[in-house]
Design a protein that fits this description.
alpha/beta; FAD/NAD(P)-binding domain; 2 domains; nine-stranded mixed sheet; globular
Length: 493
Amino acid sequence: MEHFDVVVVGAGLSGIGAGYRLQTECPERDYVILEARDAIGGTWDLFRYPGVRSDSDMFTLGYAFRPWREPKSIADGDTIRDYIRATARQFGIEEKIRFRTKVVGADWSSEQQRWTVTVEQGAGEAGGAVERRTLTCDFLYSCAGYYDYDSGYTPDFPGLEDFGGTVVHPQFWPEDLDYAGKRVVVIGSGATAVTLVPSMAREAGHVTMLQRSPSWIGAVPGRDKLADQLRAVLPPRVAHRIIRAKNIAFTIGVYQFCRRRPAAARKVLTKLATRFLKDEAMVVEHFTPSYNPWEQRLCAAPDADFFRAIRGGKADVVTDHIEAFVPEGIRLVSGQVLPADVVVTATGLRLLAFGGIAPKVDGAEVPLAEQFVWRGAMVTGIPNFAVCIGYTNASWTLRGDLTSRLVCKVLNHLAARGFASVVPAPDGRLRERPLLDLSSGYIQRSIQEFPRAGHRSPWRVRQNYILDAATTMRTDLDRTLRPTRREKVRTGS
């Protein structure tokens, strides 16, 4: 049976970053990255819908160790995927990846102080045979994100079988879908819908975004002019570091402003929308949510492309509820029928803890909802295990990189102290807090299945990179990690 010091699950943005940190900060450790699909990129390889892009700037979504050199600050999915692949190739990380290898089980042995990881190989090959096998490792690190890659969320729409057109979900976009000149209805008002509408409007006859309730949408520059000026005169790494720091400070400042002064934030966002749309009544009806900014994630419209599509007449927004699908389109509760040739159900994603891995300890499945997360990374009740969970109010990679560095710190701590394993253990009672503190539907539908955050450090899961960057790597590991010494480990098969 193969054995590795570290097994990383997932070869997306987080997994490639983890590989870099492992081989630079723990060079004596061997590792392997197990990827269920047949390509590098994770979310950025899976999602292929029109206009797919980041809603975070690439100077912070990109890696701290590899400067972002492309012109656009808000980048399209293809460019991000190429960046991740080039990073894996440049640092030799792609040689550590095993594709079409899906982790379907992980069991920790307290006796042997190691994980037995069960995988299915060949799972991503069309028509290929699936082979189940096992390998072992000392430390398991899940970088599979928290989305369900196998299924998206679609409500049970009445009469859907009666619709005479085409229905697609953005997560599974057909390569041969032809919507040129056709009537398109995009159901939803989140980031995916805000991305799809202006992109599809370039070719479609007309696009309607149908929403039950409005979302906050902010126009952001597609390019960072200050970044362009700095990159023109400074070495790439120096420029990248300055731009990254500037964008981190700006993002945190906007978030804090929205949470601390919600009334003022509402005024700013409605004023901006009115400036672009030139229609105050439209903004009141379709772009003024009942919730405050950043109670749900703020949608970004690069160069105001979403607002420009609406003002130019290529798209519009309808706020109403669906009564039923009919052969010619969608009948609303108001009685209006939206004619459609293509309906896109941008109705959200499903969350899936640890990429679907249900960790066991000595053969017993760990009840995740009863556990707490330490430093946003390790989980009570599960030794030598970490999970990468990004920020909800900033670029995923910011916390992802902190977590990978923390994992390396823990691995070096194990070696220095002669420990076989550590598991986080609170020194007193913790009051439960949600792991992801947003009111978005896709989070509220599934968050009860995830571990909890606590009310105090190091169990709080903060949404503040500056505070985390100042404290994470200074963590006293002896204080909150309960060890098992290596000499107590029994050997044997």
